[in-house]
Every structure is written in structure tokens, then in C-alpha cells.
Amino acid sequence: MQRPENGLMTVEAELRVPAATAQVVHYLFVEPIAGALREDDDYRLDLCLTPRPRNARACYSDRWAPHHFERLGAVWFLPPGETLQACSDGGRPQRSLVCRVHAEQMRAWLQHDLEWTDRRLAAVLDIPDANIRGLLLRLAEEVRHPGFASEVLVELICAQIAIELGRYCAAVNEGPATGGLAPWRLRLIDERLREVQSAPTLAELADLCKLSVRQLTRGFRTSRGRSIGDHVAQSRLEHAKRLLSSDQSVKAIAYSLGFSSPSSFSYAFRRLLGETPREFRQRVLRAG
Questions:
Q1: pLDDT of 103-128, one tens digit each?
Q2: Which residue from 97, 188, 268, 271 has the least number of CB within 10 angstroms?
Q3: Is 26's pLDDT higher than 50?
Q4: CA-to-CA distance for 190 and 186, rounded, in angstroms?
Q5: Which CATH fold topology does 183-287 show?
């Protein structure tokens, strides 16, 4: 996990069990903060025990437009594999309960993986559910003042939290937003973009979704907060970055992504990322 900039974090208390880790942490943010949060193997829950810094908000940087930020509530939740860009005005200390539940254990408790649509991702940035909040407060109390059979109790509380989160997410209305695309259409687009080949045309994506090009472009912007052209370009960039971490040649990668030449691939890559594919590869190799 990357820690927000311009802040100091102290772990005041911690309890570890096989299924999860729970911590009471103290942050000191003396300046406006901005940073990325990501958990690759855990679900992260955050309960603010004191008021958050002013104007706390967040954006799923891999899914939403850069300017699309939503308010962070007293309780928020981050699924594994999602990158959350968080920021606030800073200027005050903050105490939080941070609970990380292992993804495999969450799957075992719920007997399935939670499906993360854009609407559900937005809904877990500010969770008003009283049951979830009450369980997190009980967990915070146990972390600060552990007693008899604390590890067993923490496991039980985490299992209850997992069930309540599953119920909360299931209750999120998954109908399309007004003017937006239905979740099944967004999934079709994302599945097509995960294929490493030339970028799809608007006509291809519109046909895939059984819509006109106009309906597709307007509905996608409403659902995702950015144009479908920007989304396709960002998706191709992410493909390129992953492939450049392999031993494939830049030429082979360019053609596999549908570019007419390595030079056109290099131009597009540099325009989006500020460095050439070779410069990116060299930097990754030096860092790794």
C-alpha cells in the first residue's frame, strides 16, 4: 500500500488473526494530502474514529476520469486490485480503525466473489450502514483493549462484517443510471478491451452493445465520467505497460496492440505517459 504524501502515520494498537489484521492508527496531516491506496490481496475497511480532514474525497484512478472524485465517508471500503486516489485539505490529526481482511477468507465466508460495478464502487466510499459501523466500533474497542479470547472474537466480528458488506453491496441498485449504460454493456466493453489486439472502433463497440454510436458515446460518458475514446486509450496504455514488463520486443508489442508501426506506438505511448516505451522499460527494470 502506498501511504498518502505529507502525512505521518503511527500504529497505536494492532491485533492479527489468520483471517485479518486490525489496527488503530493515528495520522498527522499538516498539509493538503494526495496519494494512492491499493491492496492486492486484502479487502480494506476504514472507520474514522475522529473527524476526517476537510474535503476528503477519492477517485478510482483506473476506472474513472481523473476529475471524478466522490466524498469519503466515515466508513469506506476498498476491494483488492482497485487503485484509489485519495486527497483532502489536511490540517488536522485523524484516528482510524483500519481492518484488512484476506480476500480468500472473504470469499470463503460469502461463498463467492463480490462483483464490483461502478455503482457499487461508488457506494462503498461512504457506507451509512449502522450494522457495519457498529461492528467496526466493537472491533476498534477490542483492538485497543484486548481481553479473553480476543483472536476468536476478532475472527467472529470480521465474519459478521463480511456478511453485512455482502448484503449492503447486494442491495445497491444495479439498474442503469439515467442516460447511462447498463452494467452488462459496460462488462462487454471491458471484456473486449482486455483482449490484447487492435483497439475496437466505436462501431464495433456499439454493435457489441446493440446500440447506436451516439447512444454508446453518451451513455458511456454518463456511466464512467469520461469519453469512451479516453477509456480505450487508457486501456491500451495499461496493456502496453504490462507487455513492456515482459521480454517481448517493442516492435512485437506495437503490432500486437494494433499499431501500424513501432514509431506510431512510441508516439502514442509518449503522448499519454511522457516517456517512450523503451524509457519506460528501462525505468521498470532499474526499479525491479
A1: 999 999 998 888 888 888 989 999 98
A2: 271
A3: yes
A4: 6
A5: Arc Repressor Mutant, subunit A (1.10.10)
The string over 69-95, giving b where at least 16 C-beta atoms fall within 10 Å of a residue's C-beta and e elsewhere, is: bbebbbbbbbbbebebbbbbebeeebb
**What is Dmax (Cα atoms) for the chain?**
67
Domain 7-171: homologous superfamily in CATH: Jelly Rolls (2.60.120.10)
- Cell numbers found for residue 136: 467496526
Contacts of 229 (CB under 8 A, 6+ apart): 202
CA angle, corner 18, sides to 13 and 19, nearest 5? 90
- DSSP, collapsed to helix, strand or coil, labels residue 173 as coil
- pTM exceeds 0.70 for this model: no
Is 7-171's fold the same as 183-287's? Answer: no
Helix (H, G, I), strand (E, B) or coil at 14: strand
Matching residue, cell 465474519: 159
Q: Name, in order, each residue with C-beta under 8 angstroms of 16's C-beta and a sequence gap of 6 or more.
A: 22
Task: Give the residue, 182 or 264, on which the prediction is more confident.
Answer: 264
DSSP conformation class of 138: H
Q: In what order do the strands lie in the sheet with 57-60?
A: 33-38, 83-88, 57-60, 70-71
Please name the amino acid found at residue 171. Answer: A
Give the start-to-end residue ranges of the domains of the chain. Answer: 7-171, 183-287
CA 127 to chain CA centroid, Å, is 16
- Ramachandran sector of residue 158 (left: φ over 0; alpha: ψ -120 to 50; beta: rest): alpha
Beta strand pairing status for 20-29 and 75-78?
A: unpaired
